[in-house]
Amino acid sequence: MWKKCSMPQADTAERLQKVLAAAGVGSRRACEDLIFRRRVTVNGKVAKLGDKVDPSTAEILVDGQRVITDTKLVYIAMNKPRGVVTSLDDEKGRTELADFLGQFDQRLFHVGRLDADSEGLLLITNDGELTNKLTHPSYGIAKTYLAEVVGPLPRNVGRQLLAGVELEDGPARADAFKLVDAIGKTAQVEITLHEGRKHIVRRMMDAVGHPVTRLIRTAVGPIRLGDLRPGGFRHLSNAEIAALFKAVSRDGD
User: What is the DSSP string of 196-243?
Assistant: First the structure.
């Protein structure tokens, strides 16, 4: 359940339809229609025309989907290049995430990690509550990787990973596995898992005898890397942000 927020202060409250329009939900008239049709809730209560809210604290849902109205909150997808350390203060002086974040005014943090030799999708935000949920094991947020591995791959590798392999710190199991391509002694596979242990994909592939030579994370929950160039950023859409909140909502099913 969303936390209840205090009543908006008079100096920060704005008309609900104006706040929704500013958040990109639609025109002000379209937002009024959503309110009239009882499709909008504020702090758990059905909204009505004439309501005012504080956009920095109100928790607003349209058709059950969270709408971010706090303009100070930032949600970004980055394609982390290989060789970049997922750190904001690397003691060894290596290229680090902070070197890419200077263009943003807000103090931002990465959601989870990618080791220096891995690349791909990294979520970046200043929303601490969402970050904690996305990284907490109890929410089981799935992550998908494209791995280039030493081949050729026998047919039973997928079955082994789906059944589970034994690692030094306990068993690990893939949620999904697919052979994408195979050329000579190299194969590309797609593996999805909700595990968050360090180097988990590399260790699982080592356990079945096919070490990873390149690893790209292509999705975190509902967010996909797409065609984002290495080192590039994009702001998540309203729909993507809503999908992230739904993924960590206890009553989102």
Answer: -STTHHHHHHHHTT--EEEEEEEEETTEE-TTPPTT-EEEPPHHHHHH
The pair of three-digit structure tokens given for residue 244, joined into one six-digit string: 């992230």
Could you identify the residue written with the tokens 């002694």?
185
Whether residue 251 lies in the annotated active site: no
User: 212-215: long-range contacts (C-beta < 8 A, 24 or more apart)?
Assistant: 212/147, 212/148, 212/149, 213/148, 213/149, 213/150, 213/186, 214/82, 214/119, 214/147, 214/148, 215/117, 215/118, 215/119, 215/120, 215/145, 215/146, 215/147, 215/148
CA 170, CA 89: separation in Å to the nearest integer?
Answer: 31
Q: What is the pTM of this model?
A: 0.82
Mean pLDDT of the region 99-107: 80
Burial (CB < 10 A; 0-12, 13-18, 19+), residue 189, is buried
- pLDDT at residue number 253: 42
β-sheet bridge partners, residue 182: 187
Query: Is residue 19 within 8 Å of 58, Cβ to Cβ?
Result: yes
Cβ atoms of 143 and 174 within 8 Å: the answer is no
If we measure between CA atoms, which residue out of 197, 202, 157 comes closest to residue 178?
Answer: 157
pLDDT above 70 covers a percentage of the chain that reads 91
- Summarize the confidence of residues 215-219 as an average pLDDT: 97
Catalytic choice (33, 70, 115, 175): 115
Residue 24 has pLDDT above 90, yes or no: no
